[in-house]
Amino acid sequence: MELQALIFDVDGTLADTERDGHRVAFNAAFAEAGLDWHWSVELYGQLLAITGGKERIRHFVATCQPPLPPGEDLNALIARLHQAKTRHYTALLAQGGIPLRPGVKRLLQEARAAGIRLAIATTTTPENVTALLEHTLPESLSWFEVIAAGDVVPAKKPAPDIYHYVLERMGLPPQACLAFEDSENGLRSAQQAGVPTVVTVNDYTRDQDFSGAALVLDHLGDPENPFRVLAGTVGSHRYFTLELARQIHAQVARSGVGSS
Ligand code: XBP
Ligand code: MG
Question: What is the pTM (predicted TM-score) of this model?
Answer without folding.
Answer: 0.96
